[in-house]
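Usage

Read records sequentially. Each one opens with the input sequence:
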Amino acid sequence: MAQQAPPISSPAPTRVTSVTVDDVPALAAGAAIFGTGGGGAVYTAERGVATAITQHGPVPLLAVDDLGPDDAVIVMSGIGAPTVGIEMLPSTHQVQALLDEAERVAGRRITALMAAEIGGSNGVGPVGWAARLGVAILDADGMGRAFPEATMIAMNVAGVPCEFAIMSDVVGNLAVLKTIDLSWLERHARAITVASGGLCLGAHYLLTAETAKGAVIEGTVSTAIRVGHALLSSSEPVAGVANELGASVLINGKVIDVARHTDGGFVRGSVTIAGTGSDRDRLQRIELQNENLVVIEDGEVIVSVPDLVTIVDGETGHAISTEMLRFGQRVAVLAWACDPLWRTERGLELAGPKAFGYDLPYVPFGGEAVAR
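and closes with the structure output:
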């Protein structure tokens, strides 16, 4: 049923060493694809990042191997319901307050930021925050996509402890959390976020050259930029993105039903897509929790988390986040394999179907499970 993208041959990509204002549209487009429907819509973040880089200059992009003994990386992200993020914009003081408090708690200077997730606005915003703060951005993230919960991060899979977390809301409140594990961090952070109107910014997971290696998903910022350039430059954007990702096109169709509500800081629901053209007479339902989780057709699970599913505009190829899905949209659904880290026993425990309440076995999409 899925249309596998044909292989392409191209020279190895030139390493990206900084993010310039010219890269921002591609970064935003690529991060939206990796958002798998979540992480927040990118259009406000894109404008904020472009303004920050214009004012403060390009942001150095560091590979994990570039980190030295004096470097310290803090993970930053927004937390909350993407539907709220459309209307509630962050304060210009929030990020500086987070950095100052992180340096106070850590007792050392922070030299770089890393996105908790490359997906959606959380993959874009940290670049602008780094520009304003005068620090570098790490060419890596904690998910290789977007996930809705604090536990679902690569460092947790790798067993790296999270010693503290700091949260800031739009009116200036700061909270420092030192929880016994990430499950408790998720509970406390979500409660603070709901009390703050549904959206906060957070900083956690202080990383060094020693702890980052093997515990983060590397190269994802430059990959998002590359995917975005493929989308923006292609005469057939959906095919261009699928080729760049090695993704499959599951269906081309029209949105005929959206069931969606905001509950406990999450967007939950489902979307139903009726096939068009050569896919007519086909029907797919996609289950949502901030991100696209499970694709079902004819009672069969086609794809499930932690593999990636993104709904894109059928003509432009741009990703459509879950809060922006509407009846009548012409769309295509893309799916591709997750990073091998998520197919480990620990990865599936944290972010497989059962972690989201689905009583079904994980079947790897486009490849065999990896034991680690």
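Summary fields computed downstream for this record:
- The longest helix spans residues 43-56.
- The two ends are 31 Å apart (CA to CA).
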